Amino acid sequence: MSLKDVFLYLSENEVLNSAAQKYGLQLGAQSVVAGTNIDEVMESIKALNAQGISCTVDNLGEFVYDKEHALQAKDNILQVIERIHTEGVDAHISLKPSQLGQDIDEAFCYDNLYDIVKAAHAHGIFVNFDMENYARLHSSFTFMERLLEQFDNVGTVIQAYFFEAMDNLEKYKDVRLRIVKGAYKESADVAYQSKLDIDQNYVKLIEYHLLHGKFTSIATHDHNVIEHVKQFVAQHDIPKDQFEFQMLYGFRKEMQLQLAAEGYNFCTYLPFGNDWYGYFMRRLAERPQNVALVTNELLTKKTKTLLAVGAGAFILGRLSKK
Predict the structure, then answer these.
(1) Fewer beta carbons within 10 angstroms: which end of the chain, N or C?
(2) Residues marked as binding for substrate?
(3) How is the cofactor bound (predicted)?
């Protein structure tokens, strides 16, 4: 049993997710989310913009199984788009197709995505499709491909732990891409399992897209990867306007400011809303070292209790299967 397995189990536990929503602010959620409503996230955007940092905004949402909740999520995202436009801030949208009905009805989901992308396009705002587990991967790519037939403000994420990641990177090299390591538990049939293999493929993907791609968003908190990228772009005369570094809100704040001050494009990923728990657990699963980055701010006594209960449930579940 690995620490990653525990965090992934916690991210998929609806009971703990509901408890975290109810007591989010008391648990210290404000350390990892940029607000619980649109007004608060707009203030977070303005504060970061003032420090030379752009933002991508994610309206958090888990376990969307009915059209009512999907339509509510769409409405929230449309409101964010309108506020970005009217207030003239430097920000774009990140969204998950699953929150907009991907697991309910694909035609319904596409219609929701279309409305969002169309509204964003009218204001010159970019929309990034976040990627989730392998079961949703190819339908998410299909959504993007259909929308790219009419709009040019859509991009997506390539996850380095998938064997097919390089094929997808080459296929979509003319699309703005965010490159990540991957944060879900995937089968050995489709994904690398060792950290070394994932890390090596991650750097390989970054280098390829920097040399051949349209625009590269390098999403990492790993200072070793960041230093490697700095050296690589200098060696290959890659201009700074061809890429950006990305980190999550609340993580490595000093490094975010330092990179922006050094003249690199920097974008902070801003999740907002009460549904923060699954998102945060996946970030810890993706890189358990992230615990140390927010421990002092996030892990209140109540948070530790919630994590302990979840870990205990995970262990009992594993033992019951033996």
Answers:
(1) C
(2) 96, 282-283
(3) Binds 1 FAD per subunit.
130 as an active site residue: the answer is yes
The number of folded domains in the chain is 2
Annotated binding site for FAD: 131, 159, 181-183, 195, 220-221
Together in a domain, 129 and 230:
yes
Binding residues: 96, 131, 159, 181-183, 195, 220-221, 282-283
Q: Tell me which of 58, 176, 178, 252 is the catalytic residue.
A: 178
- Which tokens sit at 67? 């059209």
pLDDT at 314: 44
pLDDT digits (tens, 9 = 90+) for 150-166: 999 999 999 999 999 99
Range(s) of the domain holding residue 319: 1-27+280-322
Top-confidence residue, 26 or 171: 171
Is the same domain home to 213 and 321?
Answer: no
Mean pLDDT of the chain: 86
H-type helices in 23-178, by residue range? 24-27, 38-49, 67-87, 106-122, 134-148, 165-171
Tokens of 51: 């420090």
Q: Are residues 233 and 287 in the same domain?
A: no
Give the list of residues 6+ apart from residue 292 with CB closer than 8 angstroms, or none: none
